[in-house]
Design brief:
The structure is a single chain. By secondary structure, the protein is mainly beta. Strand 31 and strand 32 form a beta hairpin. The model has no long low-confidence stretch (mean pLDDT about 95).
């Protein structure tokens, strides 16, 4: 069963065609919708900063919002102590101080009377990385595998002195899973420095070949694979006043677990860590004494028959040491829960068959949390206030589409930037109590001069016979329903990703429209296993990646075949990463359906993928041998019918190159012909100008075998 709605885009004679460069990178470069640049709120004020070009010069302007109206002021950038090639994207430390990194120099700007006074706060070593500056004006950074701390009195001090390069301090751990994107955590007042310490010495080396020298060189990385030995992580706290470090007592007997959601208490006395077991189905939120490392208590536990997936730190209520917001999918959807630090649930703040996407801020005046959520539709994101007292929700924004929110420090105002069907990008400032709204920028349509296709929003019933799935059908320009057209299916259909939104461009991707201009129908759909539809929707693929989502994509194929203008003998499929796995799976498990395919960076054998991600969805090869065998594509090469192009980055450290190399070897063993192309020097994705080369390669492959 399927139903459609049509997005009408008027077509006129002599409209322009997209170049492959515009189709690939245009939406972030020459065809980007108009918006404000480098927008940020000045802490402790109602002032919104942005950079603008005036008289061919980049300048800062500041808009003050109040009940009496708005005031726009030009800012004197001051004199930089060294050459700055472009107006900086500043970061505020507090109301009066901002900073940015210029090369290896940390520039500090003291702001007063509409003018900055800039100075070099510190110069980082040439090989410094992960530079983090605190409002106390202390700077933490890493050099190789060790962590350093700089302050004005002592200069640079080595926090760690690990001689073993396999022991890494101050960097992200667990391969950036669980929402982890850093390894440095200053305490709220800057008096202490917490950091991850990761011992990888027990993990096997994996070679990444670098081809930029002759002979080629090898970079040995640590890549823990599913079912294998993983690294061990601890959280340490360094006291600059004493020079001493303590380790949080997260478990000496069993270190085969994950330390997530690291959060300081506002008073700097405690650190909260959510410990997740290796099986990822049991979580303990623990409270530790920051000075001694002693475990104070477990506030609560969360379990799930399949998996628990923590991705957010605790959010403490401003002015409170004993209340925080916790994210959980315990009722089937990602929602917010108000807890006290004794572990007592005060109340569930949000509830319903929809998910919360982000916490943008908390008001200091009315005890409301400002969030974005998919409450209206899983295809949209809107801004709401939620009362901490009773969970009452009020929508703040207006207009259908995808809204993002950036709150002023006190939560009084929100910068609302959104796009939707027919709306390239609109930018508003809104008062979170609903009393004020002002449009700052309404972007003209950057695609108005182009020949654009008709787009149908499609709803299809999943293979379970119950679940609605959302997709888009992009028809060729100059579409004639009496003709038959070749079709390209683009997919991802893996965890944590959603392709289908109500956003601009309506197609979701200008490459789809480029191919439509060249006579193709393009179809894309989010099946079960993808993101933003609740835990049951995502867990439909548990322990059997490549089954339920494959069945759903085949329902999409059934829909396409039901259309009289689809040429079922000329169908192609394309995807990258998980989408590459799906693309290859469709060619091998449903041979003969697609005439050709392009799979980029594909997982071919989940036993060769990383521990954290794989074991969450598949368990281990030891406890789910049948699931791994079913998903393994290396033993199915003989099923290939049609043409398959594999593409891989030679330095891919996410889906390692061996996946496609092993697949090629199996094809040779089975006397199966397959096409192959590599991008030397690239990791998991091909970016920048070379992406144009990639998309031309993909487009030409479809032209060769579907036209």
């Amino acid at each position: 069963m399927a139903c459609t709605t049509i997005v009408s885009i008027q077509l006129f004679a002599q409209k322009k065609q997209f170049t492959i460069a515009e189709a690939t990178n245009g939406m972030s470069t020459t065809l980007a919708p108009k918006s404000i640049k480098n927008a940020c709120w000045q802490p402790g004020t109602d002032k919104l900063w942005q950079s603008e070009k005036k008289n061919n010069e980049d300048v800062w302007t500041v808009t003050s919002f109040s009940a009496d109206g708005t005031t726009v002021s030009n800012i004197d950038q001051g004199t930089y102590p060294e050459k700055v090639t472009a107006i900086p994207a500043i970061k505020w430390l507090d109301k009066d101080d901002a900073w940015f990194l210029n090369g290896k120099d940390v520039l500090l700007g003291a702001y007063a009377a509409h003018k900055f006074n800039w100075s070099v706060l510190a110069t980082m070593p040439e090989n410094a990385d992960h530079v983090t500056i605190d409002k106390s004006k202390k700077i933490a950074y890493t050099v190789d595998n060790n962590l350093w701390l700089w302050d004005k009195e002592q200069g640079s001090v080595a926090v760690t002195k690990e001689a073993n390069k396999d022991v890494v301090c101050g960097q992200s751990v667990h391969r950036d899973e669980f929402g982890i994107d850093k390894g440095i955590f200053f305490s709220p007042k800057g008096n202490y420095l917490a950091y991850y310490r990761m011992d990888q010495s027990m993990v096997k080396d994996y070679p990444i070949i670098k081809w930029d020298a002759t002979p080629a060189t090898v970079d040995l990385i640590k890549y823990p694979m599913a079912g294998g030995t993983s690294h061990e992580v601890t959280l340490n706290v360094y006291n600059p006043a004493t020079g001493k470090t303590v380790t949080m007592q997260t478990g000496e007997k069993n270190k085969d677990h994950y330390l997530t959601c690291v959060t300081w208490s506002p008073d700097e006395k405690y650190i909260y860590i959510a410990i997740l077991n290796r099986g990822q189905n049991h979580l303990w939120l623990n409270k530790y004494d920051a000075k001694t490392g002693e475990k104070i208590k477990t506030l609560f536990e969360e379990t799930d028959a399949k998996y628990v997936h923590p991705t957010h730190a605790l959010t403490f209520i401003p002015g409170e040491n004993d209340e925080f917001i916790w994210w959980s999918e315990r009722d089937g959807y990602e929602h917010l829960y108000l807890y006290n630090t004794n572990g007592k649930l005060v109340r569930q703040l949000t509830k319903g068959k929809w998910v919360v996407n982000d916490i943008a801020g908390i008001t200091t005046w009315g005890k409301k949390v400002i969030i974005t959520a998919a409450k209206e539709s899983p295809l949209e994101k809107h801004i709401y206030s939620v009362a901490l007292e009773n969970g009452r929700m009020e929508r703040i924004d207006k207009g259908a589409g995808m809204h993002s929110a950036v709150c002023s420090e006190d939560g009084k105002y929100v910068l609302d930037v959104y796009s939707g069907a027919g709306i390239p990008k609109n930018t508003y400032v809104r008062a979170t109590d609903g009393s004020y709204s002002e449009e700052l920028v309404k972007s003209p349509d950057p695609l108005a001069d182009y020949d654009r296709p008709q787009i149908k929003n499609v709803t299809i019933t999943a293979a379970d016979g119950l679940t609605p799935l959302y997709g888009k059908l992009i028809l060729p320009t100059n579409f004639d329903s009496t003709k038959k057209y070749p079709v390209i299916v683009y997919l991802y259909n893996g965890p944590n990703v959603q392709l289908i939104h109500n956003s601009f461009p309506e197609s979701g991707n200008l490459w789809y429209e480029y191919m439509a201009q060249h006579g193709y129908i393009v179809f894309t759909m989010d099946g079960r296993g993808s993101w933003n539809r609740g835990i049951a929707f995502e867990q439909a693929t548990f322990h059997k990646l490549g089954d339920a989502e494959m069945d759903d994509q085949m329902k999409g194929v059934d829909y396409l075949r039901s259309l009289r203008y689809v040429d079922a003998n000329r169908m192609g499929v394309h995807g990258w990463s998980y989408g590459g796995f799906m693309t290859t799976s469709l060619m091998l498990k449903h041979p003969g359906i697609f005439k050709c395919a392009v799979a980029g960076g594909p997982v071919m054998d989940w036993k060769m993928y990383e521990v954290m991600y794989t074991e969450r969805y598949m368990g281990t090869p030891q406890n789910n041998a049948a699931g791994y065998e079913n998903a393994d594509l290396l033993d199915k090469t003989k099923n290939l019918q049609g043409k398959l192009l594999l593409i891989h980055g030679t330095q891919d450290n996410t889906v390692v190159w061996q996946h496609s190399i092993d697949f090629i070897k199996k094809c040779v063993d089975e006397n199966v012909q397959v096409d192959y192309f590599v991008y030397p020097g690239y990791e998991h994705n091909v970016r920048g100008k070379d992406r144009v080369h990639l998309m031309q390669k993909v487009s030409s492959y479809f032209d060769d075998y579907l036209k």
